[in-house]
Amino acid sequence: MSALVRIPVGVVVERRKATSPWADYIWQPVAVLPGEPDTKPWTVLKHDGDRTSFYAGPAIVNLYVSETSNYRDNLVAGARLWVVLRPTGSDPEHEIARVTADPSEGEAFTEAGNDIVESVPMPDSIRDILEAFVAEHHVERAFYKRKREPAGQETRGRRPPGSEDDE
Q1: For the chain, how long is the longest CA-to-CA vector?
Q2: How far apart are CA 166 and CA 93, in angstroms?
Q3: Strand 116-121's sheet: what is its strand order?
Q4: Phi, psi of 10, rounded to the nearest 5 degrees
Q5: What pLDDT score was predicted for residue 118?
Q6: Which helix (H) or strand (E) holds 69?
Q7: Element (H, E) at 75
Q8: Contact between 85 and 95 (Cβ < 8 Å)
């Protein structure tokens, strides 16, 4: 399924000196900028002692009609975007794998293990687009609970009386 709306954004990440013997730095997405800034990816924005902020590069937030209930829940819960950074094993050390407004999709990326997944505040201009998208496309779907058929004797792990294995 293709996205109905594509929102260009820029991603800002921060690198902090780690206090761990296993890692030199801690990387963390800290902000998403509306639009695509006219700045080269991995440009240093601010350096302050052991912290350095970078413009990591552009990304696209895709909006799908099938996910409007997740977007609506996100807006009610505080309007966040999930940024996924993936290690590259080369320079630069990370690439932007995804930026999403769908909390379920953001959570699903945490299962990969090596990805860095952080939620960041959603800029007001993107929130406005998301609210308009949900208002236009959301259709409330009724929940139907399925009724189960009663299980037969063999599916309950018991043998009927008089079967071969009955002793």
Answers
A1: 80
A2: 65
A3: 94-100, 80-87, 116-121
A4: -120, 145
A5: 96
A6: helix 68-77
A7: helix 68-77
A8: yes
Under DSSP, the state recorded for 24 is S
Torsion angle defined by CA atoms of residues 32, 36, 38 and 44, in that order, rounded to the nearest 10 degrees: 20
Hey, what are 48's tokens?
């302050």
User: Is 74 in contact with 101 (CB distance < 8 Å)?
Assistant: yes
Helix (H) or strand (E) holding 43: strand 43-48
Radius of gyration of the chain (CA): 23
| Cα torsion 93, 81, 117, 16: sign | positive
Q: Which amino acid is at 96?
A: I
The pLDDT tens digits for 61-97 are 999 999 999 999 999 999 999 999 999 989 899 999 9
> Read out DSSP for 87-121?
E-SSSSSEEEEEEES-HHHHHHGGGGSS-EEEEEE
Which residue is listed with tokens 């794998």?
97
Query: What digits encode the pLDDT tens for the residues 1-12?
Result: 678 999 999 999
d(CA 134, CA 27): 32
pLDDT tens sequence across 126-145: 999 999 999 998 777 777 78
The pair of structure tokens assigned to 44 is 């240093």
